[in-house]
Records
---
Amino acid sequence: MRLLAGWLCLSLASVWLARRMWTLRSPLTRSLYMNMTSGLGWAGGGRRRQEEPPVVCVQQRETLRITPGCLCTQLYHSFVSSVFSQFMSRTSINGLLGRGSMFVFSPDQFQRLLKINPDWKTHRLLDLGAGDGEVTKIMSPHFEEIYATELSETMIWQLQKKKYRVLGKNEWQNTGFQYGIISCLNLLDRCDQPLTLLKDIRSVLEPTRGRVILALVLPFHSNVENIDGKWDKPSETLEIKG
């Protein structure tokens, strides 16, 4: 307990000092301050890959506000991440803490992407690698049945809390029915067999009206996150150049 209390006091003092230095309007102190706060988690999370932005980018104006409650929460998240990262993946830690969501598109942007109106509805959605389900929630009003896949147990827990039906890694291809929309957002660079995944998507997509919503993190780098947080190269190579 003494060690934790000392660590919290040191972190609080460091952020307070950096914030005071901010008033000097020095580019160096501003850079140090932003690096410090991003290390504590204020830079935001992500869907599938928290450290990189999605392909679909939307400009947003956000104000960083530091309050005692916010600061304590972020310090707690930082402490938990440091401890659990020894045996859990970053995705699972984010699922446990209820963070790690990434903005991909708004409801209006989703409708414009598919050229549909707000009342449009079809039968089935499959969201592959759905994370915590926040992007799934944007799409869900347009579907009667919503299915999702996810490998992280804590993210599965988040999906089940939202009442989505979670299918297993080798289950969604063998349900016996097809999907009107399949989303694969920032997943191809995180899976072990991207070529097989694309073939399986085609096999279960409605052949005439079905659509695939695909997003990639660029520049494209393939790495597979293991359950213990370590990264490996995928067994299949997806060649993307330029």
---
Amino acid sequence: MSFPFYIEVLGWRIHPHPVMESLGMFLGFRLYLKIRRKNRIQESHALFIFLGALAGAFIGAVGLAALEHLHQVQGDWQQAGALALVQGKTIVGGLLGGLMGVEGVKKLVGHRESTGDDMVLPLILGIVLGRVGCFLTGLSDETVGSKTSWWTGIDFGDGVPRHPTQLYEIAFLLLLAGGMLLLTSKKPWEGFLFQLFMLLYLLFRWGIEWLKPTDKLYGGSSAIQWACAAGILYYVALIMRKRKGEKRNAEQTIYIS
């Protein structure tokens, strides 16, 4: 198998990354429309929240990618100018940026109920398909891992066996999807699935970044790792606060009864 692995369609050779990325976004959105519970959000609010998520995800994805590849961006700035800032994207930045966009819009429109649980499986589907595109792209995608002697090592075209970190992530996400499906039928986890997904995914990404030959420009860690750490702390605090709130409400209900 050679990389990039171009997709042949009617005699055309199409690069795999934009194809799989677009397919992931399309199918993920279609899945969301199919499974979302309409009673959780008013139609008048849904569009604004979606636009907030889209804007936040774009800003977060390109902003964190620019920090992650700061030296490359600085080198490209002279030729491409501001376009150098939008040449890369990262899922971690997209997720965290999208979260901030959603929460900001929800405050503006006065929507207080949690809307994240319905997004978990669509996000997993979209990320998995996107990572397939990253894997098929090979070295030029800059998501492959460092040199390894593990049996999982793959030669992406430079004669060096490397960690296929994209495949590791796909395997993790498929296991996570199975766990999320099991928890959807558990009443105590309702309203916590998105927080749990984000916490586990950010923990995974923080760890897997050590297997990548990326620049560790910020205190021995990468920008993505610092963003993951911030997100992990946020979600640990959020889950603990929500759990305490539910426990307090349950105790008050028992006392009143």
